[in-house]
Amino acid sequence: MTDGLMMMAALTALLAAGIAAMFLARAPRLSLAIWVVAVFFLPIWVGVNLGFFLSAVTLSTLGFVVLHGGRFRLAAPDAFMLLFVGVIVLLFAAKQVDLSYLVSGVLELVLPYFWGRIIYERIGSRPIAGWIAGAAVAVGVLAVIEFLTGSNFFIGIPGYGPLQATWGTLQPRAGFLRAEGAFGHSIALGGALAMSAAFVLATRMSTWVKAVGLVVIGVAVVFTFSRIGIITFVLTVVLSILVLRGVGTSIRWVTAGLLAVGLFILVPFLDTVFLDAGSEAGGSADYRGSLTVLLSQVQLIGGASGWEDLVVGDTYLGSFTASTDNAFISLLLRYGYLPTAALFTVYVGAVVVALRAGRMSPASVAIIAQLPGLFAVAFITQYGILLWFIVGVAVSSALRPEPGSTMAAAAEHPRTDVMIIGGAGHGTSSRGR
């Protein structure tokens, strides 16, 4: 009887999932909303274990790519992303890349990129900007509450034990609790909010609503006490008011004024916090500087192996095995110079195409401003997934005008139809950095 009930429950769940999929396939805006909520509000340890763990964010990304990717038009930048996938698959077959790195590369870098490309083609930039901006402001409010109360309710959400043990703890700095929201790390939260600032300025909200949203996000970033998060937030805001065409004159001046006042008030406070943090903050910076010694182990193609047992100069490389908080070096160690170059050709190409076409979008601004952050953190938790989704949006917005516009119709030309599917994986980083 129990087996029969379990079978009925399983069939009911499958039927419900099938009906939901049929509905969502015709509702790209709702699909985007669900995905954004998953990224911003579900910790990375929430998901299902099918012999290997798939986070809710990964599952939703995979599902929406399958549902909406049936008629996706390839462009030149996509060839480099597919080249990256092809090369690491071959390297895995040749035992030059670990299975975990193959899976994480496809699921956390490639799949979110194509989801960004696909959803832009379906609905354009305005809903994307609106949902990211709204979610970021809500997360910012929760981060402020987290800092003021010293409590993060996200860490109480149950999930996959090993991941929760890694990411589900809180970080102090100089006696303060560093806000991290659902992102599992203060740096990940700071980076996600910094990118979102460009989308807040790009929305069609009134000047005062945008200003309030930026203040909330800015305060939340400060409460992460992440230096790179604060730096990239400032860069994002400055670039947005300088180059985004859709930003009105009034909000440019209001934003510039708020930024100046905020820096005047907060710089002395932050200076005190980082001085009080003493060796913890200084050691974190020294650690990142010492990562460059790992470059001697990078291969032209294929993952570095055996470096964990080496000593270079006076540095024992095994001390970096738990964490390599530098996205570039982490990818170089996993895949080698050529696959990493193919991957970042897409990243840089999105910016170059946008500059040459004179179509700087909030996504383009966000990824430009994040470049310094890639030297301070790997693609951890939802931060990396959100970043590569935004890279995909940036590529789409640079390649052609807003879908549905007269300019877009004139620029339209046939391209190959493909379907993209993939799997799952997770990055790691030291909790204390």
UniProtKB/TrEMBL annotation:
Coiled-coil ranges per UniProt: none
UniProt keyword list: Membrane, Transmembrane, Transmembrane helix
Protein's UniProt name: O-antigen ligase domain-containing protein
Native source species: Microbacterium gawkjiense
TM stretches of this protein: 43-67, 74-93, 128-147, 182-202, 214-244, 251-270, 335-355, 367-391
